[in-house]
Amino acid sequence: MWYYEKKLQYPVKVSQCNPRLAKYLIEQYGGADGELSAALRYLNQRYTIPDKVVGLLNDIGTEEFAHLEMIATMIYKLTKDATPEQLVEAGMGAHFVNHDHALFYHNAAGAPWTATYIQAKGDPIADLYEDIAAEEKARATYQWIIDVSDDPFINDSLKFLREREIVHSQRFHEAVEILKEERDRKKVF
Amino acid sequence: MTYTLVKCYSPYISKMDPCPPMLKKCFSTPPNLYIPFQPYNSEQFPTAREALYKGTLWTCLYDPYPLKREENLE
Fold it and tell me: Residues that bind Ca(2+), according to the entry (chain A) (predicted)?
């Protein structure tokens, strides 16, 4: 189970109404390498991974939900007071017609989130390598969003999130090293 | 080779588990995990035929699967 702390992991401030930036940020909300995919991927893999790394998947999966919340807050703040005309101008006309001002799990191009974005192979090495790849892809996505964003407050939060991807990737690498270790019976081929 | 191609662990077993427990679970740790960059002049299989059947020219990259039960467990 989880306990909920009613605050964000890192503060989210927005300097100006900018629905177009929200359209790009949606990629990290409901995209293939977004925070929802990450959280669900790790928490689901916990059950069939060796005990030594279950805790890592649990903790990182939980943190991804905290990131999801930050992204949601950014998107909400960027769009909540935008008029339909502003949304259409920002390329979010289709989103408005379907969802009004509600958030939805789809990527920047409007394709809805799908479970095919994540994988659980059951093989611990394959799963951890998928996780490492996902972290690097999320880091790259944050870079590209920062590149197209001119909002210094949003960029500050995005830089924090990008750094977390780097830390998570490092921890997953370490998990692979733990699984590679020769424990119990030494058997030399 | 100084590493094993299979690792095993004992998962948590609950008294409430409905099925008879599998006390030991094993997974592959193939040789490529242990070779950051393959050294020059690595050992090759003695014949082209053998290499062809094994799927690799290099003995250090060959990973028989599944391992024989005796090798795998205990």
Answer: 59
